[in-house]
Amino acid sequence: MPPGEASEKWDPAHLMDLLWRTRPRGTRGPRGSLSLDEVVAAGVEIADEEGLAGVSMRKVAGRLGVTVMSLYRYVPSKEDLLDLMFEMATPEPTMAADWPTDWRGRLTAYAHEMRKLLVERSWMLDIPISTPPMGPHNFAWMDLALGAMADTPLTEDDKLGILILISGYAMNESRQIVSMNRAVARTGVSYEEWGEVYHRMLERATATGRFPALTRVVESEVFARSHATAEEDFDYGLSFLLDGVAALIAQREKG
């Protein structure tokens, strides 16, 4: 990841070497007793147990029974460790063999699997994104989504834009459900109940007459009537995106 000082130049090849395990082993000093995978796996275990805030070079070293300084033989910085953890926590998309064969079904499954991973391992959402995906696991997911559109008339620019849009939607919705889950734990109000609670708050706010468009939404009682699950809300929003993709495909077919 880019260093903190602007005067230093960051080399993306450095991170690629770490992610692809092509970084040359150092020749100075004693040979380490660990592997890079063991170091990264320890970080993932701590994050699964304590969240990202619990991950430190000191804790990773303690779990492995080595000194903090010895870790730098394997990973140059904590920022590099976090990038490596994100890659390791992203599984190979072997489940795609059971996905539908049409483009819409496959992109739907892609979005759902991405959301499932990020909600289950919510600490991944807390890792700052400083580079595009560069690891083999993340490349496999990109290739899978792009391949879902292979038999369509979409251009390669179209496909990449759609991949970014759907991935961004899944990531944003994952953040929202993680935040809601934390709110549920704090308030005792379930996801399905929040609509009605929010409706009452909006009624108070719109009674001032300051928000005419919002008032019409409140008067329609859309929030009060909605008891949709998080999964249903996710599908509802995703359908808008995929309808747009379908419209673009139809446009490309017409030439």
From TrEMBL:
Residues 56-75 bind DNA. The keyword Transcription applies. Pfam families: TetR_C_1, TetR_N. GO terms for molecular function: DNA-binding transcription factor activity; transcription cis-regulatory region binding. SUPFAM superfamilies: Homeodomain-like, Tetracyclin repressor-like, C-terminal domain. GO terms for biological process: negative regulation of DNA-templated transcription. Residues 33-93 form the HTH tetR-type domain. InterPro entries: Homeodomain-like_sf (IPR009057), HTH-type_TetR-like_transc_reg (IPR050109), HTH_TetR (IPR001647), Repressor_TetR_C (IPR004111), Tet_transcr_reg_TetR-rel_C_sf (IPR036271). Transmembrane segments: none annotated. Gene3D superfamilies: Homeodomain-like, Tetracycline Repressor, domain 2. Keywords: DNA-binding, Transcription, Transcription regulation. PANTHER family: HTH-TYPE TRANSCRIPTIONAL REGULATOR RUTR, TRANSCRIPTIONAL REGULATORY PROTEIN. This is TetR/AcrR family transcriptional regulator. It comes from Streptomyces hoynatensis.
